[in-house]
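Weekly sync, protein design subgroup
Attendees: M.S., D.O., the rotation student, P.L. (late)

Item 1: inverse folding check
M.S. brought a backbone from last month's batch and wanted to see whether the design step gives back something sensible before we order anything. D.O. pointed out we never logged the input encoding, so this time it goes straight into the notes. C-alpha cells as presented (344 positions):
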C-alpha cells in the first residue's frame, strides 16, 4: 500500500519551506504512486516513495530509474535522506524530497537544493542515544560485521566476541544493547539470541561504512605501468587480499578492473610494492581516468576474518561496500549485479 500520508507530509514541508505551491496528483493510472506538479514546469515528476531508505534500496532505485529512462523525471520521497544519500542522488541528477525538508529539484526554471536538515528526536530518545548509538561507530562496526558473517557469534560469551571483533569488552555490551534496542538482536528464548532482519542490518552497516570505517583506514595510493604484472601478484604467502574492482573481476569476470585495492598488513606492504613494481602517486602525477590507481589499505580486522569464500578475496559484504563507497557510476552499476548474485 502506498504511504499517502508520507507523500503529503513531504510535499507540505517542501511548500512550507519554499512557497513553491507544488501539487500532488494521483489520478493517472500508469503512475501508481502519483506525480508532483510544479508551477511553470511542463512535465510532472514521477513519484517513487519508500518510508525507510537504505543504501541497497537506493542503488536499486537508481538502477530502476536508469532502465526505465526516468532519471530526469523521477522524484524519490522518503522520511529522511542523509547527506551521503543526497550526494549520490544529486550525482545521478535524481530529484528528491523528505519529510524534514531536505530537497533537490532541478527542473528549469526551478532549482532547489536544501541539505543538512535532520529529524527531530523526543527528549527521551536523545537521552537514550547518548547511552546507545555505538553499533555503527568505528569500533561497533567491527562487532556488527562479525555478527553479519558469523550470526552464531551473538550467543558466545562477551569475552569471546570481544576477542573475535578485536574490541574492548565494554564495547561489546554497548553494541549488543544498541542492536537489541534497534531490534536487530532478539531474545528467542532464555538461552538463545538471534540476529533478526540481517538484510536491514547489512543495509545499515553499508550506509555507515564510508564514513565510520573506510575514511578512517590507513591507505596509500600507488600506480603501475604494468597491470599484467599486478594481476599476477600472488598473495598466498603474505597477509593480504584483493578488494574492490579486481575482486569483482575474480568473482565472476563481469567487471574489468580499472583501479585496484589491496588490503595488506603493514609488515607485508613492502613485499607487495616490490613484487608488483608499484610507485607512489606524486603531486605532479595527473590523477585522471588514464592513471591506474592501486590503493594499499590497512585492514580494520585481521585479514583472515575479512576473507570471503574465495581465497585471497575479501568477503562479498566488504567488496560490495568498496564498490558503493567509490561513488563511481560504473562501480555502482556493477554493485547492483554483484549484490544480486553473491549477497541477496
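Designed sequence read out in the meeting:
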Amino acid at each position: 500500500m502506498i504511504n499517502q500520508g508520507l507523500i503529503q507530509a513531504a510535499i507540505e514541508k517542501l511548500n512550507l519551506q519554499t512557497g513553491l505551491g507544488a501539487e500532488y496528483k494521483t489520478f493517472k493510472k500508469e503512475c501508481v504512486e502519483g506525480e508532483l506538479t510544479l508551477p511553470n514546469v511542463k512535465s510532472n515528476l514521477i513519484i517513487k516513495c519508500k518510508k525507510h531508505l537504505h543504501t541497497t534500496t537506493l542503488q536499486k532505485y537508481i538502477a530502476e530509474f536508469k532502465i526505465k529512462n526516468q532519471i530526469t523525471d523521477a522524484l524519490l520521497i522518503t522520511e529522511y535522506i542523509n547527506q551521503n544519500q543526497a550526494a549520490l542522488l544529486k550525482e545521478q541528477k535524481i530529484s528528491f524530497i523528505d519529510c524534514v525538508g531536505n530537497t533537490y529539484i532541478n527542473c528549469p526554471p526551478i532549482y532547489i537544493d536544501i541539505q543538512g536538515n535532520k529529524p527531530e528526536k523526543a527528549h527521551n530518545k536523545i537521552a537514550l542515544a547518548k547511552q546507545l548509538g555505538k553499533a555503527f561507530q568505528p569500533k561497533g562496526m567491527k562487532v556488527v560485521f562479525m555478527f553479519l558473517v558469523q550470526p552464531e557469534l551473538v550467543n558466545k560469551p562477551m569475552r569471546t566476541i570481544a576477542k573475535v571483533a578485536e574490541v574492548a569488552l565494554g564495547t561489546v555490551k554497548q553494541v549488543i544493547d544498541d542492536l537489541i534496542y534497534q531490534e536487530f538482536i532478539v531474545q528467542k528464548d532464555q538461552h538463545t539470541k538471534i540476529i533478526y532482519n540481517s538484510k536491514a542490518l547489512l543495509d545499515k552497516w553499508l550506509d555507515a561504512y564510508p564514513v565510520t570505517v573506510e575514511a578512517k583506514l590507513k591507505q596509500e595510493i600507488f600506480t603501475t605501468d604494468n597491470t599484467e604484472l599486478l594481476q599476477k601478484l600472488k598473495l598466498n604467502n603474505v597477509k593480504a587480499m584483493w578488494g574492490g574492482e579486481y575482486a569483482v573481476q575474480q568473482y565472476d569476470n563481469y567487471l574489468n578492473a580499472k583501479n585496484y585495492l589491496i588490503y595488506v598488513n603493514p609488515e607485508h606492504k613492502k613485499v607487495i610494492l616490490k613484487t608488483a613494481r608499484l610507485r607512489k602517486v606524486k603531486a605532479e602525477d595527473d590523477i585522471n581516468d588514464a592513471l591506474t590507481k592501486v590503493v594499499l589499505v590497512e585492514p580494520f580486522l585481521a585479514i583472515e576474518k575479512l576473507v570471503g569464500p574465495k581465497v585471497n578475496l575479501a568477503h562479498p559484504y566488504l567488496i560490495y561496500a568498496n564498490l558503493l563507497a567509490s561513488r563511481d557510476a560504473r562501480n555502482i552499476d556493477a554493485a547492483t549485479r554483484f549484490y544480486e548474485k553473491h549477497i541477496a
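Discussion: Residues 147 and 154 are 6 Å apart (CA to CA). Residues 4-18 form the longest helix (15 residues).
Action: P.L. to compare against the previous round before Friday.
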